[in-house]
Amino acid sequence: MNRTTLSLFAGTAALAAVTAFAAFDPPAASGADSSAKAAAELPVERTSLLCPAPSDSEIADTAYTSFTPVTQGTDGGGKAGLQAATEQSAGDTADPTGGAAKGKSGKKTADKPVLTPKEPGTPATGDTSGSEEPALIGTADGKFAPGWTVQETTEVAAGTGRGLLGVNCTPADTEFWFPGASTSADRTDYVHLTNPDDSAAVVDIGLYGKDGAIKSTVPDGFTIPPHASRPILLSTLTEQRQDDLTVRVSVRSGRVGAAVQALDDKAGGDWLAASADPSGSLVLPGIPKDATDVRLIAFTPGDADADLKVRLASSGGAITPAGHETLHVKAGMTTATDLGAVTRGEAGSLLLTPSDRSVPVVAALRVVRGKGSGQETAYIPATAPVGRRATAADNSGKGTTLSLTAPTATAQVKVTASAGSGGGSPVTKTYTVRQGTTQDITGLAGQGVQGTYALTVETVSGGPVYAARTLTATESGVQGFTVQTLPNDRGLVAVPEADEDLSVLQK
Fold first, then answer.
1. Higher confidence at residue 497 or residue 103?
2. Phi, psi of 16, rounded to the nearest 5 degrees
3. Chain Cα centroid distance, residue 458
4. Whole-number pLDDT of residue 504
5. What gap in Å lies between CA 207 and CA 249, rounded to an integer?
6. Confidence (pLDDT) at 21
7. Does the pLDDT at position 109 exceed 70?
8. pLDDT band at residue 497 using 50, 70 and 90 as cut-offs
9. Which H or E run includes 9?
């Protein structure tokens, strides 16, 4: 019988166009192979994002902000939207079957959009209030897909975890690392798992403390039903109470979105996003200059110990914090160290590099601002570089600080502040970030901007560049804050150009 075989180019392009869960920066051209053809960069055609359930507090207000940067090469069609997960399971106890906790039945949620995104280049907002708000599953295609970014920001006026909590909604994946979680008596930490697919996902949660792996009360994993979300209270997985844990989320079948909600009885709380993939060198950008205490938590998943040099990329250059020149991380064990007020009033980012051989590590910072009853907490995980472009939504005129750091080479960075959700004009500026320094930038909003705006960060030359955005807001006399890192926004995918068209008819 006759069979038609697609060309290699056409097949590759079709696969790449729908890829929304990885981004690729094309390698530099090699002088040794002048015949090699450069890969073409095409906008992704479909993107999926998952937002965890925001809060169970009766006095919580949550805002969602959606933004797609303008991307050349997209057509005029497409749509995007965020909808509630079809089932929300209570998650106070460790029930691996996917059923509800404490005898409560799963709650079916309304199938209506939380917000409808606007045209690329303009933010769109939506709000919720009160407890039992659902997790959200979002999809975008066509012109809305490249670089689509959604920010979830919650203000909690009082109680455990009070303050400002923020998280970027993320694509589904199969493995996540969360150094910085806790099962201590004054912490209430949940890992939120959301399944966007049509079949159930089976998920294992591993805990690693100061002495290594901790035996879980749920050895057989958790089943997350299709289009559903579950919060798992970490303290139900073990009787051990430890201040510093690393959580590994690994998916046996399917995919999930994952984030840890870390709530402190006295020092507020925030979302802990996943660390960048294990690597020998890590960058943790955007430590607020007025941080009163910074705690570094690191973990190496391999069989070898890691010895790391610890440096701070400040506004004046890279320095070694006194008394914290190196960090030894034992294999399979979580290591934590207090760096105190390491920034000393200057912009700062933490740089971790191998002292000797390179051993893959994951890491995060627990950052505290304020003192006594005015303390508030946020988390900064190790992150990937900006690459071609990164995007941060939900910025305000006076409450936003953008931090840029170039650890290995001076870089030029283009920053675009979009029009506001309520009007105004976009503005673009270019900044030079010197090697080994961190630069904090405020006052980014364009003329006449009303409402919330988005920031798009693009590497022009040099680099690599790492970025983070800090939001602040005062609630009940406490200055809340939250920090989101800005890895590549996955808006473009590299498609290799075929040397020849392989389209043939085969018999």
1. 497
2. -70, -35
3. 18
4. 45
5. 9
6. 32
7. no
8. low
9. helix 8-17
Contacts of 11 (CB under 8 A, 6+ apart): none
What ranges in 263-393 are assigned the alpha helix state H? none
Other beta carbons within 10 angstroms of residue 506's beta carbon come to 7
Share of the chain above pLDDT 70, in %: 84
Per the CB < 8 A criterion, the answer to whether 490 and 147 are in contact is yes
Token couple for 308: 């790391």
Task: Supply the pLDDT for residue 505.
Answer: 44
In three-state secondary structure terms, 383 is coil
Average pLDDT on 186-192 reads 96
For residue 327, give the nearest of 366, 295, 374 by alpha carbon.
Answer: 295
| CA gap 389, 393 in Å, rounded | 14
Query: 207: closest CA among 250, 258, 267?
Result: 250
Residue with the two structure tokens 């009360």: 217
Residue 191 CB-half CA count within 13 A: 31
Whether residue 497 contacts residue 7, with contact meaning beta carbons closer than 8 Å, is answered with: no
CA distance 407 to 313: 7
| Region of poorest pLDDT, from 183-187, 288-292, 369-373, 426-430 | 369-373
* Total Cβ atoms within 10 A of residue 187: 22
Give dist(CA 361, CA 354) in Å, integer: 10
Which two structure tokens, joined as six digits, stand for 483?
Answer: 């920090």
Closest listed residue to residue 188, CA positions, set 204, 165, 211: 165
The tally of CA atoms less than 13 A away on the side-chain side of residue 96 is: 12
For 194, phi then psi, to 5°, come to -130, 130
- Bridge partners, 43 (sequence order): 492
Rounded CA separation 452/446 (Å): 11
Q: Is 176 left (phi over 0), alpha (psi -120 to 50) or beta?
A: beta
Q: How confident is the model at residue 37 (pLDDT cuts 50, 70, 90)?
A: low
From first CA to last CA, the distance across the chain in angstroms is 6
pLDDT tens digits, one per residue of 330-342 = 999 999 999 999 9
Q: What's the Cα-to-Cα distance from 59 to each of 54, 135, 151, 421, 480, rounded to whole Å?
A: 12, 18, 20, 25, 15
243 within 8 A of 180, measured Cβ to Cβ: no
Place of tokens 């080994």: 436
Which pLDDT score, from 0 to 100, does residue 32 have?
A: 38
CB atoms within 10 A of CB 127: 10
